Amino acid sequence: MSLLEQVVRVAPLMHKMVLCFEEDFTLGVTNREKFLTYIAGQSLRFGLSVDDPIREGSLANFILKNKKPITKVMDSSVYGVAYVAGALPIEEDGAVCGALVFGVSLDRQNKLAQIAQHLSDIVEEVSAQSRAMQEGSESLSSHSERLYQTMQLMQDRLHATFAVLKSISQIARQSEVLGLNASIEAARAGEHGKGFSIVAGEMRRLALHSSNLAKDISDKLSFLQNEMASLSNMVLDSKNLSNQQAQGIVQLASSIHEVTEEALHLQQMSQIQGK
């Protein structure tokens, strides 16, 4: 039995062996003129049959002329599916007596490449959004910090205002006491103290009015101070939350970078270069 006949005989076994690793694989054996056997793949069906002649320009024809192996990536324009085509010369007694030709579908690899590209596009979009969120979060944190400092300054000014109002209240009380004493002295002076009695009464009235105004202002400022303290706490919470969000976005960016690396790795794995 010649070597060529032996290759034809074991061709079905070789086809089954390759199917353990590739779902779509086609195999054929030729002599120098025609196909001796052809086993079609799942989608790689080239319409070949036993005894079909070797076509000019085919891989088998190239092998018989050049006497060296060849591997070539074929796009889907030929048979509707992308595949890797290859051929090996069969030599016996120092001469090429035939060729072993085969094809492996790239459909799965192409789908993997498409998925990897889609994943890469999604990751890039999410990455861009995360960068924008990080910038916004950092800007918000900066604004919150400035607002918090402004609120603290306003509270310091309120404390100073309370000190002024306290002095006004003390002066008003003292003026009221002086007015009362003046009224007493005016009463003792009798007819001569009537004019002074009117001035003393007016002084007491103004002192009481000033005291009431100071108390009213103090009450309103106390309410404002409480509201500002509450607002200051909310601003501080917002600042802390912004900082936490910024840190979370940094961690997210790191994870996105890792996913990007994996997507690129998938793309590299899906690429098969023809020789």
UniProtKB/TrEMBL annotation:
It comes from Brevibacillus panacihumi. Residues 110-275 form the Methyl-accepting transducer domain. InterPro entries: MCPsignal_dom. The lineage of its organism: Bacteria, Bacillati, Bacillota, Bacilli, Bacillales. One of its GO terms (cellular component) is membrane. The keyword S-adenosyl-L-methionine does not apply. It comes from the Bacteria. GO terms for biological process: signal transduction. PROSITE patterns: CHEMOTAXIS_TRANSDUC_2 (PS50111). This is Methyl-accepting transducer domain-containing protein. Pfam families: MCPsignal. Keywords: Transducer.
